[in-house]
Amino acid sequence: MAILVTGGAGYIGSVVSEALLEDGQEVIALDNLSHGYPDAVPAGARLERGDVGDAGRLDEIFRQYAIDGVIHMAAFIEVGESVREPTKYLENNFARPLTLLEAMRRHKVRDFVLSSTAAVYGLPDATPIAESAPTRPINPYGSSKLMLETALAWQARSQGLRYAALRYFNAAGATAASGERHVPESHLIPLVLETAAGERPQLAIFGDDYDTPDGTCIRDYIHVRDLAEAHLIALRRLRDAPDAAESTAREAGAPQLATRAYNLGNGRGFSVREVIDAAERVCGKKIPVRLAPRRPGDPARLVAASDKMLAAGWRPRHTDLEEIIASAWRWKRQHAPAAKSQVSS
Ligand code: UFG
User: Fold this and answer.
1) How far is the CA of 206 from the centre of ligand 1 (A)?
2) Which residues contact 275 (CB under 8 A, 6 or more apart)?
3) Is-contact 170 220, C-beta < 8 A?
4) Which of 105, 120, 134, 291 is the most buried (most CB within 10 A)?
């Protein structure tokens, strides 16, 4: 039996594939390579080029392999771009995966793990944020993921889909083989490291007048390998312990959909300035910064309460911020020159 990992040639997809392989599972990575890299797919996983919105291609893949679960990570992830081009995000992140859900139904594949996001919460009333907090996205990216979560809930109710929506906070760090390479890069830690490496003259700090101790935004950084482990747990739970709440609700004819969302974070926030300070210690270099205006849509503070996944047995192991940054720095020094030449070629 195999797991279909959509977006398997991307940053988180490649690390999730690695974790599945180490767990002894067969991995089929489906990626349209619009943002992924074939060389990011770990040896041992099978790369199939294709799009989650292509029903014919999905039929081929579901016929070819004995797939018994799907981890869906293929998505556009740039919040700013989503504000400029909402339909691009709604189409790619919400509409196309509906074709995947239909293909799963046709081929009787029932287990689905969604890579969702803290962006579904918008501007939270309080932190740490629990899954029960109101979901009020403030950008099309967050909306596209929340709409897909809703589609999953309906599909669970009417078609027997078993799913978990994993709401990532700030994925960061690298394994020995897989790290972050977005083009263009917009995420804090890779940009800080590019600045440390002299590839950028300065890092722009987007606002220092937030209501936080040092005025810069606070985020909950979670090591990508810890994130990957949560996917294994989520899959195992779908197989072994289908959600009793939903079946009870369904049988009782309850109107509400049971939420099957899990936050994934360390429960500890670090400010932009704290990240820069930690990176200076890791890299042994001063990182030049300049103050820039606030980036639209940035909440001051996003910190997860991940009690639900912790109760399911999840134990994040790389929780130290310096350790997370050091893993990204190691990966960058070993792999980034090759990655860069590949991007420009
Ligand atoms: N930041 C800077 N300078 C930069 C880049 C980022 O100051 O050059 C700041 C941002 O303003 C923010 C923090 O660093 O306060 C973290 O920014 P990232 O872009 O690294 O991450 P986000 O918190 O904006 O986004 C992450 C994911 C998104 C997801 C979101 C959920 O990358 O995909 O969390 O809130 F939607």
Assistant:
1) 9
2) 188, 189, 192, 219, 221, 321, 325
3) yes
4) 120
162: which strand partners?
A: 111
Query: Which two tokens mark 338?
Result: 């090759």
Tell me which residue has its CA closest to atom 29 in ligand 1.
119
Catalytic pick from 37, 121, 141, 163? 141
| pLDDT tens per residue across span 285-342 | 999 999 999 998 889 999 999 999 999 999 999 999 999 999 999 999 998 654 443 4
Measured CA to CA, the distance from residue 266 to residue 321 in angstroms comes to 10
Q: What's the CA-to-centroid distance between 217 and ligand 1, angstroms?
A: 9
Tokens of 44: 């041992």
**Tokens linked to 250:** 């369904």
- As a whole number of angstroms, the distance between CA 327 and CA 161 comes to 36
Question: Measured in whole angstroms, how far is the alpha carbon of residue 224 from the centre of its chain?
Answer: 9
Q: What is the DSSP letter of 259?
A: P
Candidates 295, 321, 324: which one to mutate for ligand 1, based on the most atoms within 8 Å of Cβ?
Answer: 295
- 136-173 core/surface letters (b: 16 or more CB in 10 A; e: else): ebbbbbbbbbbbbbebbbebbbeeebbbbbbbbbbbbb
Strand pairing of 111-117 and 162-168? Answer: parallel
H-helix or E-strand containing 195?
helix 188-196
User: In terms of pTM, does the model score above 0.85?
Assistant: yes
- CA 100, CA 106: separation in Å to the nearest integer? 10
The closest residue, in CA terms, to atom 34 on ligand 1 is 170
Cβ of residue 12 lying under 6 Å from some atom of ligand 1: no
- The rounded Å distance from CA 92 to ligand 1 centre is 21
Matching residue, tokens 């793990």 = 113
User: Which of 78, 117, 219 to mutate for ligand 1's pocket (most ligand atoms within 8 Å of CB)?
Assistant: 219
The domains found in the chain, sorted by start residue, are: 2-171+222-264 (3.40.50.720), 174-219+267-344 (3.90.25.10)
Active site residue 141: yes
Give the whole-angstrom CA distance, residue 125 versus residue 146: 18
